[in-house]
From TrEMBL:
Coiled coil: none annotated. Residues 9-75 form the MIP18 family-like domain. SUPFAM superfamilies: Fe-S cluster assembly (FSCA) domain-like. This is Metal-sulfur cluster assembly factor. Transmembrane segments: none annotated. PANTHER family: FE-S PROTEIN MATURATION AUXILIARY FACTOR YITW. It comes from Alkalicoccus halolimnae.
Length: 110
């Protein structure tokens, strides 16, 4: 990956840290919900992510919040289209959370 692409990918990840899971009150990056951010040749963004549960009632809200968070990069034409792909493989579990998220949620490691 070129240095420019990596820098853009880092900016996308930084924007995703502003998207907070409405139920847990912690951002989706620190929760470990973002599995991958892909950029194609035209700088279209594909966010591959999961949810804390298959039946998450706020999936549409989180996807909308992701698109809203990335819209500024889209407006200044740093990125193109935004696609969010939700997967449950591998399934999310608490071990995927950052230390910050575990502290914020009172999750103790065993």
């Amino acid at each position: 990956m070129s240095e420019d692409k990596q820098e853009l990918k880092d900016r996308v990840m930084a924007e995703l840290e502003n998207v907070v899971d409405p139920e847990l009150g912690v951002d989706i990056v620190n929760l470990g919900l973002i599995y991958e951010v892909e950029l194609d040749e035209e700088d279209n963004v594909k966010v591959i992510m999961t949810l804390t549960s298959m039946g998450c009632p706020l999936a549409a809200t989180i996807v909308s919040d992701i698109k809203k968070a990335l819209s500024e990069l889209q407006e200044i034409q740093e990125i193109g289209e935004i696609d969010v792909d939700i997967t449950f493989n591998p399934p999310w579990d608490k071990s995927m959370m950052s230390r910050y998220a575990k502290l914020a949620l009172g999750v103790h490691e065993s």
